[in-house]
Amino acid sequence: MAESRARVTGLRRVAAETLELTLVPLSPARFAFRAGQFVSLACGPDQAGKLQRRSYSLASPASSTDRATLLVKLVPDGHGSRYVAGLRPGDEVGFTGPMGFFVPALTHAGDVVFAVTGAGLAPVVPMLCELLARREPGRVVLHWGCRHEHELFYREWLEELATRTRLELTLHLSQPGPAWGGARGHINDAVVAEVGPGRDFFLCGGGEMVRDLTAALVAAGCDRKRQIHSEIFYPVRKVAT
Length: 241
Ligand SMILES: Cc1cc2nc3c(=O)[nH]c(=O)nc-3n(C[C@H](O)[C@H](O)[C@H](O)COP(=O)(O)OP(=O)(O)OC[C@H]3O[C@@H](n4cnc5c(N)ncnc54)[C@H](O)[C@@H]3O)c2cc1C
Fold this sequence. Notes:
The protein is of the alpha/beta class. The chain has 2 domains: about 5-100, Elongation Factor Tu (Ef-tu), domain 3, CATH 2.40.30.10; about 110-230, Rossmann fold, CATH 3.40.50.80. About 20% of the residues lie in helices and about 35% in strands. The chain has a 6-stranded antiparallel sheet with strand order 4-3-6-1-2-5, with helices on one face. Strand 3 (about 40-45) and strand 4 form a beta hairpin. The longest helix has 13 residues, at about 205-220. It is globular, with a radius of gyration of 18 Å. The chain starts with a strand and ends in a 9-residue tail after the last strand. It binds flavin-adenine dinucleotide (FAD). Flavin-adenine dinucleotide binds near residues 71, 73, 78 and 100.
């Protein structure tokens, strides 16, 4: 796949461990993508001199093709995390894509339920923009889980969106402070309670969450092939034996 180029125009910390990277396209001259797709960013060589790539979802509306944003969770000692954190406005980056099949259907007659954790919100941002602009009858439900308050980002935007659109938003924290007024614990039970005919589920986050929630949805009667769509950001951790 041909390498595309873009210029960094902004780098903003939107949460304790999350950076928002703003890019303008250089070649080709437009970001043409479907909501939910990702790019494979060239993140410089590793210690052996081998170019490392990391996938990052496009987190801005697909309708704005003259700029795009990425939301990058900074993982301790992560190669891609270190590369992105070291970028500055004016720097050029290379990438392949956009690509991927974690995208909304062209029409959704029924409810759409998003179940995401952490930076898994990134591909859902343009999907929400697209779905909420459509004249469709179904509910659009978002369950977003993080550990602490300081991991949340885009919260004001989401809450404001929920006041003026058909978005039904629930924020879940598994380790909240005493003042937290939202849901407590993991997202799984609330998502499984949404199971019903004609509903589409979009799951995004770590491998364990996607694996466990998929199993729970199927056990509750969900059709895995037709109703569950998922994107795994990082694989299930191997337990040392
Ligand atoms: C299709 C796709 C889209 C993706 N979109 C995004 C996105 O929009 N934003 C984003 O931040 N990431 C996204 N990811 C994950 C991203 O590609 C990297 O894997 C991740 O950012 C870690 O890369 P790194 O080089 O910093 O860490 P690495 O050097 O690759 O990993 C270091 C260690 O951290 C662990 N780890 C990796 N990610 C996490 C995490 N989120 N939380 C806790 N531990 C982790 C790894 O298992 C590994 O043990 C996406 C992945 C895929 C496959």
